[in-house]
Amino acid sequence: MIKRNLFILVLVLYSVLSYSQKKTALVLSGGGSRAVAHIGAIRALEEQQVKIDYIVGVSMGAFVGAMYASGMTPDEMEAFFLNNDVEAWVNENKDSMQQNLFMQDDEDASLVSIDFDINKKGVKYSVPTHFISANRLNFELMKMLSPSCVAAHNDFDRLMIPFRCVATNIDKNKLVVLKEGSLCRSVRASMTFPFLLDPIRIDSALLFDGGMMDNLPVTTAIEEFKPDIIIGSKAAGNYDPPSEDDLLSIIQNMLTKDTDFTTQGKEGFVLEMDLPSLDIVDFSQSRIIIDSAYIQMKRQLKAHQNVSYLMIEPYDLASKRVSFDDKKPILIVDTVTAVLAKQGNNEYVNSNLKRRKPITSYQDIEEDFFRKTANPSYKRVLASMPYNYKLGSYKLVYHLQESNPYSVDFGGNISSSNLTQAYLKLAYQNVGKNRFSSYLNGYFGQFYRSVKGNVRIDIPGKYPIAFQASGTFNQKNYFRGQTYFFEEEEPSYLKVDERFFEMCFSTPLSPVGKLFASLSLGTDAYRYYQNNNFTEIDTSDKTNIEYVSPSVGIAINSLNKKQFANRGLSLSVSLRYVSGLEKYYPGSTSSKNTTLQLSSSNYNYLKLSIDYVNYFLHHNKIHFGGALKASFSNQPFLNNYTSSILSAEQYSPTTESKALFMPNYRAYNSAALGLILSFDILNRLDWRTEAHYYQPYQRILSNEKQEAYFETKLSSKYVVLSTAFIYDTRIGPLSLHLNYYEDSSDPWNLMFTFGYVIFNRMSLE
């Protein structure tokens, strides 16, 4: 009897022991933004004390899997996606760290840029291969995963939970299993879906998203870890069959293989989650998706609670995390170096790397990293942080791919108004001891035409300096293509030509700020009739202003978009002195001089300009901002009313108003306040509403002799209202605007645009 009971006890103990020795692999699919669902699934597994022995992930599943394998809790992972504006990272919404105003040229209407090189073999050109900037993603991966890499000695088996991720070798068209080396680069490679993110090279192989070959890498889990149990978390599916009318579906099916979303005969299950259909980079519903996945995984576990293979056992995961975290070193970077993709002159690069003391905060690394990404000299910037175990410090290594020396930009705007225009830019740059760059651009449209040439020399150092010299020709023709004017009694033929040469020195104040001083020499030429009663035989009045103008100022710009921004701020403060000579050539409609003789007079004044926009309040999908614009000057009248009003700065808060001649919104001294509300309706679709109050100090009026005079102080004020729907196509904004201008003959106007309404800088701006 004793022997029999002993045999049963041994059999039971053996059975329990054999079950307890079973190993479980968690396999996480891709799925873009929907793959945050894995966080909810992992939270449910933890709560039920399901022990995860291995993790295998692909694409976004590799990101989540690496976070968990590195010791992050489900709460910490969720906080990362909810507290960081991941959607803004992948939608080209630059934060302040990703900008370098000092290195940027003036904003332009470019939509597409193609860079190229010319050598003995001919022309080698590069077209854009991705729609999403990965700079912020690359930095956050390095920041998050580098300490875990050090703790694991670059061996993914030594992470808190052994980990694998998969990528696709595009050259050999095969799956690559990544299990050692840089964890952040491996995860980044696994996430690189063609046309969205730029690819990553690891061991000389160009790697793309592993989901192209296997979007639930159960086979990899079996081959690498030989687990007894597979738990799959599926946030993606195979694509529908291609349609002859849908190019995207054809490309997707050409690039990807169908995936077997099963455990492939292993014990376990694959959680088929019911998730909303979202754009691959739409993270606006992350909280909902995580909570939904948590509930669905709990239901799945409940359904399997009596199944023998699902071993639920208590274990001290918290202690395991603490033990692994203790292996992560503190941040000390004692060396910063750069590796160029092409061997060339490193003087300019090295002069920007000099440091006097070690780096001990990620904020310093962040500033340094984004200074590189914002530098147009570099087409691609990656960084790694190898660790010296003997010295106990990191080495920050930049992997820089130089930009091609030549580039051509295409852009412009298509509009229902006369703002339709084409844009072309040819540019060249060369990096040696200093950086030399130049460009020639042109705008070609009904209302606006312009040509600008610019050369620039950047001198690096502790206090970098840039010298620029430019020549610009601008022409605004308010008559050609114009369908209406705001005041019928005003002249309906107005043409402004500007020709000026400018030299400018600048130096950075911060990543988003700079100090500048400039000297301009130019001629502003106005062509106009004094009234609308003119015929083909009449001649127009002509006013030329020849001037010399020094100016100083500061500029700050952290706006996340170059048009229709909803985050960040911009501030421009400038003080300008103008010393000029006015030359007036009266035409046949002039009442002042019927002899058509030239008259001239000196023209001197001082002007202070302030332009401020700040999006200071954000709540979920709502963004609230304010604007202030003011100018103060002792600018004198010109020879007549029309030339005087043309020389006054116009307040143009809406896109449409940039092409309208609005006398009521022109003054020598004025101030304006605006309120801006932007609401994220859908991913990349915004509703934007603005209200502006414009107060001229003294409006400019005309008497019967066509002379200008000032209205009584503060006797006029005007309101501008605008509402618009704006869709970001990734190439450029598509927008529909409804605008209202107080005290005009045609106050309500509807306008459609595609592209950017941005001009070259105007004379005396």
Topology (SSEs and partners):
Layout: H1 2-20, E1 24-28, H2 37-47, E2 54-58, H3 60-69, H4 74-83, H5 86-90, E3 110-119, E4 122-126, H6 135-151, E5 163-169, E6 174-178, H7 183-190, E7 200-202, E8 205-209, H8 218-225, E9 229-234, H9 247-255, E10 267-272, H10 286-303, H11 317-325, E11 333-340, H12 347-351, H13 362-373, E12 378-384, E13 387-388, E14 393-402, E15 406-415, E16 421-431, E17 435-445, E18 448-459, E19 465-477, E20 494-510, E21 513-528, E22 541-557, E23 568-585, E24 599-619, E25 622-633, H14 641-647, E26 649-650, E27 666-667, E28 670-682, E29 685-696, E30 700-702, E31 708-710, E32 718-728, E33 733-741, E34 748-755
Parallel strand pairs: 1-2, 1-9, 2-5, 9-10, 11-14
Antiparallel strand pairs: 3-4, 3-15, 5-6, 5-8, 7-8, 12-14, 13-14, 15-16, 15-34, 16-17, 17-18, 18-19, 19-20, 20-21, 21-22, 22-23, 23-24, 24-25, 25-28, 26-27, 28-29, 29-32, 30-31, 32-33, 33-34
Helix pairs in contact: 2-4, 2-10, 3-7, 6-7
Description:
The chain has a 16-stranded antiparallel barrel. Strands 1, 2, 5, 6, 7, 8, 9 and 10 form an 8-stranded mixed β-sheet that branches. A hairpin with a 2-residue loop joins strand 20 and strand 21. Helices cover 19% and strands 40% of the residues. The N and C termini lie far apart (104 Å). Helix 2 runs antiparallel to helix 4 and helix 3 packs antiparallel against helix 7. With 765 residues, the protein is α+β, with helices and mostly antiparallel strands. It is built from 14 helices and 34 strands.
Record keyword descriptors for this entry.
19% helix, 40% strand, 16-stranded antiparallel barrel, single chain, 14 helices
